Amino acid sequence: MPGLLHNHIAVVTGAGSGIGRGIALGFAREGANVAALDINGAAAANTAADATAAGGRAQAFTLDVTDRQACRDVAGKVARDVGQVSILVNNAGINRRNAFTADADAVLKDWQDIMAINLNGVFNVTHAFLSALRAAKGRIVNIASIQSFMHVRTPNSPAYTTSKHGVLGFTRALAAELGKDGVRVNAIGPGFIETPLNERVRATNPELVKVFLDHTPLGRTGKPDDIVGPAIFLASDLSAYVTGSIVMADGGYRAI
Ligand code: NAP
């Protein structure tokens, strides 16, 4: 039986690690031809090789999402080497956990870097693939956060919360504008997912993880695979009448 993403070409940013890697592998399992993009080209290549070894189709491309021209260039390369993109997952992101009142230079650098990747990067990549996505009546899935709605008072960065509020706003604005073209735009709000993004916090601050879990009805942290199902849902025809939405995959964190 063909997979749920059979006949689709899917771009996933930040596909070399964590959630993006999980989504790229999951999409390939569902029959999509996957373009795995990451600033770390070797990590992207590793994801593409694993997808291929499992019987799927995938190719790797090196991309720093902060580089607008590089985003345009990679869109051209993907069109040439893979084909017309019909699914885009804006996943690449970083976090730094300095408070706003921390060292001024560090806070300024955090703000610039986080905005450049988490928010401007989403703009850059979406803009670069826009004409392909409109032509394909495609789907965009943005990786947002619990922090698209609130600030989580673990040691955390105001820039991260601001960027993720922005990702949700961008999702809604594009859904409104692109609906008439048949392009659906949605977001996923992951909870605390075990990836390299929070490896240091998990290793050094178990109490913080406990505070988080005490607020999570399912009582466990998530794994990248917990985000794969929602991503397949939003990228496939299963969600044909869903746009401008956010699917929370947070163990219930936002419910209480
Ligand atoms: P991750 O394991 O660190 O993966 C992020 C990937 O993005 C890495 O491969 C990273 O490469 C890459 N990347 C970083 N900067 C980039 C750039 N400028 N251009 C292209 N790629 C870049 O983190 P993750 O937890 O899977 O995070 C994925 C997304 O989920 C992020 O948007 C994050 O905000 C979001 N999210 C995560 C959680 C969570 O608990 N983990 C919760 C809510 C939302 P390098 O490793 O080389 O930097």
Q: How would you characterize the overall build of this protein?
A:
This protein has 256 residues and is of the alpha/beta class. The chain has a single domain, classed as 3-Layer(aba) Sandwich (Rossmann fold). The protein is built from eight helices and seven strands; from the N terminus they run βαβαβαβαβαβαααβ. A seven-stranded parallel sheet has the order 3-2-1-4-5-6-7, sandwiched between helices. Helix 2 links the parallel strand 2 and strand 3 (57-62). Residues 13-14, 16-20, 38-40, 43, 63-66, 91-94, 117, 121, 143, 145, 190, 192-193, 195-198 line the site of NADP nicotinamide-adenine-dinucleotide phosphate (NAP).
What is the radius of gyration? 17 Å
The major pleated sheet works out as: 7 strands, parallel
Taken in chain order, the helices and strands follow as EHEHEHEHEHEHHHE
CATH structural fold name: Rossmann fold
* SS class: alpha/beta
Overall spatial form: globular
